[in-house]
Amino acid sequence: MEIECQWEQHTALPLPPITLQGGEDVLAYLVKKDGRYTFANLWRPYELVSQSAIDAAKGTSDMDFEGFLIKCLDEQNAVKVCRAIKLLEEGRSAKSLSRIEQLSQSSDKIVRGRALAFCLRATQKSEVLQKAVQYIDDTEPAEVPVLPEIQEQRGEIFRQIINLKDPKLLPTLHAMLSHSNNSIRQEAAIAVRQIAEGKSEQEMAATVPHMIRCLDDADETVRHFAATTLNAVLGHPELNGKLLQYTPDDISEVANFWKTWWQTEDAAKFKTAQ
Questions:
Q1: Among the residues of 141-247, which ranges form H helices?
Q2: Is residue 233 part of a domain?
């Protein structure tokens, strides 16, 4: 049977734990669609269950699938909780967001990472971004051994930070640009570049001084995105065609141009915006 993961407007029947070959117990559910029940496994999506198991579950009362997934967030198994969070992303609601926001403070780092990635995608709030930065810092491989599952959550959080679009988050991103963690500075620089796209000088005025400072950052990625952000916001005929290639020489040339420009009268108005 094929699995049905599209749960909007469907109902689901939870099944008792089922022991698969190999002795693994799994939690499963039935999705009811067009009057028919289709088996789905919450943790291993393509497992099959015998028809007798499905028949035995049909006498169970229907329950809302989202409610079922939210209930699964109380599981003690981190992998199962993360799977439930991922399925909730397909049709997130205020109800699921509220519960997952609670999990963004979980003591389990795997669960906390998945919950933070969900919250960053669902609601771009500065406090969520600050929690995400703390999570990245707490799970830095140089500081502590990182499990593959935690590495996966770090990667997902990085992707969500890069995709931030809300200019209201710029003050938090500016603070991130001074962080001691190279990875955090990199993600902040990329996120600022994303937000800067199509924005005017006036809208990005407070960001310009931070980008100038980042031109001397020890990390090449930070320097590159600082330079491209300045190009995007301020532009200049002399820079046409520059930074089309990601090379140290390009970065150095453009960085030197903007550092020289920073000492001119044209830059004075941005210094007062700090």
A1: 148-162, 170-176, 182-196, 208-214, 220-233
A2: yes
Residue 61 in any domain: the answer is yes
Mean pLDDT for back-to-back runs of 10 residues, the chain (274 residues): 39 51 52 56 45 49 64 83 80 82 92 93 88 88 71 88 88 93 91 91 94 95 92 78 63 89 90 70
Q: Are 195 and 167 in contact (CB under 8 A)?
A: yes
For residue 241, what are the domain limits?
197-274
137 three-state secondary structure: helix
Q: Which residues contact 127 (CB under 8 A, 6 or more apart)?
A: none
Whether residue 217 lies inside any domain: the answer is yes
Instruction: Write the pLDDT tens digit of every residue in 188-241.
Output: 999 999 999 888 899 999 999 999 999 999 999 999 999 989 988 988 777 765
Residue 85's nearest CA partner among 64, 112, 105 is 112
**Main-chain dihedrals φ then ψ at residue 5, nearest 5 degrees:** -105, -10
Rounded to an integer, what distance in angstroms lies between the CA atom of residue 78 and that of residue 99? 15
Q: Which of these, 177, 270, 271, 167, lies nearest to 225 by C-alpha position?
A: 177
8 within some domain:
yes
Alpha helices in 38-125 (DSSP H): 51-57, 65-72, 78-88, 94-103, 109-122
Structural domain count, the chain: 2
